Amino acid sequence: MNSPILSTESLISVDPVTIRRRVKWGECDPAGVVYTVTFSEYVISAAEIFYGVLFDCPPQKAKQTEGFGTPTRALQFDFKRSLWPDEEFEIVVTVGDVRRRSYVLNMAARTLEREPVFTAELTPVCVARDERRSIDIPDNIRRALLKYQDQ
What we know:
- The chain has helices at residues 36-55, 59-66, 139-150, and strands at 9-14, 17-22, 68-69, 72-79, 88-98, 103-111, 116-124, 127-128.
- By secondary structure, it is an alpha+beta fold.
- It has a single domain (9-150), classed as Hotdog Thioesterase (Thiol Ester Dehydrase, Chain A, Roll), CATH 3.10.129.
- Strand 6 (103-111) and strand 7 (116-124) form a beta hairpin.
- The longest helix is centred in the first third of the chain and has 20 residues, at 36-55.
- The mean pLDDT is 94.
- Keywords: Hydrolase.
- GO terms for molecular function: fatty acyl-CoA hydrolase activity.
- It comes from Paraburkholderia steynii.
């Protein structure tokens, strides 16, 4: 007997970071299509998993230790197709530009049959956690982003 898939999100690769998701029924409208806003949750969740891999610890703990946060400065999407309840897809995370205070995480989602679903560009900005003012990317975070980018 095959066991049902219970997890709706899992890390399946760290090089590059690749997350597999299964669409939950509650993420869809009455016609069975994923709500547009839900794609933002998919991207933010993938970013958090990416940070966990990058920092090798829970992402918010690493950010708290370093005294910075990463609110979203920009988020762009290019949608290629709809997703349906129980459909599985993967999101691959790569690093784009690493700037002075912000950086770009590129995400490409595809079905398990390799059909493109969407691309997204998430641009976090580094801020001092207690003051909410932008700061330079902390040196060790910059190094980690550049190292991942080079791989």
